[in-house]
Structure formats: structure tokens, C-alpha cells
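Job type: complex structure
Entries:
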Amino acid sequence: MTSADGIRVKICGLTRPEDVAAAAAAGAHYAGLVFYARSPRAVGVDLARDLALAAPVGLAKVALLVDAEDAALDAIVARVPLDMLQLHGHESPERVAEIRARYGLPVMKAVGVARAEDLPQLDAYGRVADQILVDAKAPKDAALPGGNGLAFDWRLIAGRRWPVPWMLAGGLAPQNVAQAVAMTGTRQLDVSSGVETAPGQKSADLIRAFVAAARDLARAPAVPRL
Ligand SMILES: O=C(O)c1ccccc1N[C@@H]1O[C@H](COP(=O)(O)O)[C@@H](O)[C@H]1O
């Protein structure tokens, strides 16, 4: 991926057809469907299938899973037309490779970052996953392993690169898109809470503002050469 491709946005946690329409109309590249019962954004297989079928060509459907077993994955993959699996639990590199081989879908592995000690995990998963998702590590007492609207210290990954495409996540919102991109150099952004009015309630206005903020960066004129 080069800078000419612009910045790709994933809107995660869509639960209504109008959320899918808003993400597509705004120009998002990925739509995330959460298969984690404890999340306020959780969808069942039937609803997920309807939402995925409503997505226009060009909007990639991503299933978010947390330590899912084969039986659950089998049921989801059999019924929901998907473009990618996002693994957001404690899946080992071996499990990531196994899931990738079993379903023949690209796999994105989320890694929680809070301190420099967390960074080697990104290298390990960068060897087995198709993409890596660099997210804020959930606090120990958090009910969810992600989707908490918390950012991490982006200076930790400034200048870091991995051998596969990667996305930045955690506490992103329309107002911090420019800073997140400037500090990390990311070309892909993943957002959930930052485009909601309440947990699980997506806002078309905030989705539009988020994608526009990313698009504006790609359009910003280069600094003129002296
Ligand atoms: O969104 C959820 O409910 C969720 C549940 C379980 C694991 C991950 C979840 N969301 C992912 O978390 C990050 C950051 O979200 P936020 O923007 O800080 O709210 C993002 O990758 C979501 O896909």
C-alpha cells in the first residue's frame, strides 16, 4: 500500500442496515460485524448475514471474533459472506495460522498495546497474519477486550513498520484522526466508539465526519519544495 492509495477506514460494530449504508456512503473501506455476545455491538448470524448482504461492492465485511472455537466459526463462515476475519482475543500465532488455513479468508490479528514490552507481539503476529491491528490494550477490569474508546501512547509505534498491512485502533474519533496519522504514519484506521452517540449506537454524522477527516488528510497538499 502506498500513500497514493489514501487512508482506508474500518467502521466497526455495525448493527443496523442504516449503519452499513452510512459507512458505504461515507466511503469507508471495511465494515466490522462483532460476534462477541458481551459487546453492545454484538450481532447474531442471521442479522450479520442480512447486514453483509446489504453491503455494496467495495465495502469489505470483517467478522470480529474473540477466542472463537471452530464450531462457532464454521457457522458464521457458512452463512455470512465475509472478506476478512479479525481475531481480537488471545489467539496464539499457531491458532491464527490454523484459522487462516481452515477458512481461506484473510486474517487480521489484533494486538493490545500499552507499553513498549507489548511491541514484540506485533512482530510475531506479523509473521502469520495477513494484517495486524494495533489497538489499545484493554484495562484489566474492562468488560470488553476492545471497543472501549481508549487510546494508547502513539509515540510507542512512531516510525514502526511491519511486513504486512496494519491498522491503528483504540480511542479514535473525528477530532484525533489527523494527530493519529501524523504520529504513527498509519494508512488504515479502525473506529467503533468514536462514531457512536452511546455504546452500540452508530451515528451517520460521526461516521461521515470520521471518513472525511481521513480523506482530507490524503488530499492535503504536499509541503512545497524550496
Ligand atoms: O467493539 C466492540 O464491541 C469490541 C468487542 C470486543 C473486541 C473488540 C471490539 N472492538 C474493537 O476494538 C477496537 C477499538 O475500538 P474503539 O474505537 O476504541 O471503540 C476496534 O478495533 C474495534 O474493532
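Summary: The longest strand covers residues 107-113. The pocket of LGQLAAA5 is lined by residues 12-13, 32, 34, 36, 39, 41, 64, 66, 88, 133, 135, 144-150, 169-172, 190-194 (CB under 6 Å).
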